[in-house]
Amino acid sequence: MKKMWIRILIDFFIIVFLLSLIIGVRAVMPPRLSIFLTPKDIGLSYENITLKTEDGKKLKGWLIYSEKSNGIIICLHGYPANKSDILPVVEFLYPEFSLLLFDFRAHGESEGKICYFGLKEFLDVKSAIDFIKSNEKTKNLKIGIWGYSFGAAVGIIASSKYKEIKCLITDSAFANFPDMVKNYYKNLGPLKYIFSSSSIFLGKYVFRNDFRLNSPENFISNVNCPILIIHSRNDDFVPFSHAKKLYKKANQPKEIYVVEGPHTGLDRAYTDQYRKKVKDFLKKYL
């Protein structure tokens, strides 16, 4: 009887390990979604650009330049997505601001096979900053960031490192990555702790990356530019508690804008209230 229970436990942990490995591989190697919309489709002139990261990745992007602008917004998409997903969300910022959109590594049309959930993606943002500073049309523009979900988390990490970023807007950012993983497995009940722990273990010892180190709450206190934190009170994927953690640790000047709807409910970005809040913040600080 004892041997049978031991065998059951061994089989259980083998199954958990294999499932965690499969899920982990799928997570760090997300499916590439096709570009379904370009600036031309919505009547905006643009330039196809290629960014080069410090670790050698080529990233595909769009520069939507406005001669009327005094600032440029680097727009960061979510996971797993690409620049076309957020294009209709941020186009309202033009022509008051120029826009730069790109695909993170391992997403869209960019190089790379592995998503590092922020551990390396801040280098992708740095490549966008380098492009802006070396481009004759944009080199004198002040730089702001608007990021959504995964992109918002990367925006926080990048803003803690690069003083060129003068203004930061995050929409639906997670604060703590291990907590994010637990929430991902929330429907598994008590098993969520086993699966989340095994996922972190696999990340560190199989994929050679400690994803616990990319929690934005560990970086936000080093962000010295103004920050607007946008989050839904009833976000079903990244709980509102993450926004409260980030806001508590953020430096002044800081604002929090509470919205409604699910995590994927970016329809709120098409409302006059959302657009006014974002524009007013950018005009005030950028």
Written account of the structure:
It contains eight helices and eight strands. With 286 residues, it is an alpha/beta fold. The chain folds into two domains: 64 residues; 207 residues, Alpha/Beta hydrolase fold, catalytic domain (Rossmann fold), CATH 3.40.50.1820. Strands 1-2-4-3-5-6-7-8 form an eight-stranded mixed sheet, sandwiched between helices. Helix 2 links the parallel strand 3 and strand 4. Helix 1 crosses helix 6 and helix 3 packs across helix 4. The longest helix is centred in the N-terminal third of the chain and has 27 residues. The chain is globular, with a radius of gyration of 20 Å. It starts with a helix and ends with a helix. The model has no long low-confidence stretch (mean pLDDT 90).
Key terms:
8 helices; alpha/beta; 286 residues; Rossmann fold
Question: Could you give a short description of this structure?
Answer:
Strand 3 (71-76), helix 2 (83-90) and strand 4 (98-102) form a beta-alpha-beta unit. The chain has helices spanning 2-28, 83-90, 122-134, 150-159, 177-184, 191-205, 240-249, 272-285, and strands at residues 47-52, 58-64, 71-76, 98-102, 142-148, 165-171, 227-232, 254-259.
